[in-house]
Amino acid sequence: MQKIVEIEGLTKVFSNNRGIHDVNMTVERGDIYGFFGPNGAGKTTVMKIMTGLARANKGKVRLFGYDVATHFEQAMAKVGVLIETAEAYTYMSGRRNLELAARFYPEVEKQRIDEVLEIVGLTSFQQEKVAQYSLGMKQRLGLASAILSRPELLILDEPTNGLDIEGMVQIREIILKLAKEEQISFLISSHLIHEMELMCNRIGIIYGGKLIREGVPSALLEGRFATLEELFLHEVSEERKVAAHA
After folding, report:
1. Which of 89, 100, 148, 181 has the fewest Cβ atoms within 10 Å of its own Cβ atom?
2. Do residue 177 and residue 236 come from a single domain?
3. Is the domain of 172 the same as that of 63?
């Protein structure tokens, strides 16, 4: 399989000594890669460096073979991004927000706006002001904006954070639909491990700024653990033992 994300030795240390340390990971074409860890583990930091929103102290990120630090435009040409919260002009309609976003992509035709509204289930609400949208609807609008340019990789940071059960199910179904129908690969961060189990074919577990395990869920469980939650708790326990003796 083609590696479309290659991260090598990625390190970023903040003034409070927190950050990420020597992160190595890959995402292959066709993956729905679940980047799992508790709040503050470093997931968003990795994603911000990947998308040019932060600089690493050392290490490399390559997207589709291009180094983000030296060939940013080429690296990001086939990438859609939704980091942290979905931003929108609340005084405008959902459709108007997408029309403004589409101006950044000269190749996007008007028909594509109709397509993405249908994909995320907002066709019936496209003329409503975003101020009237629920949190789940705002997240779906953010997804619609992220796929306007028909990306081949979609980077999503906590896309179900704060949603109720119905909202989480809707986002999950949209992700699975995009993977199947639009052939989009995904890197999705979350602290909700159950969501990762339901939709991801590969998992990376980050804790304390370190990627401690990566692979196919069934292989990670190795017959020793019934769930990814059990695996995570075991790995965290082992990391704490190592830290205590360091």
Report:
1. 181
2. yes
3. yes
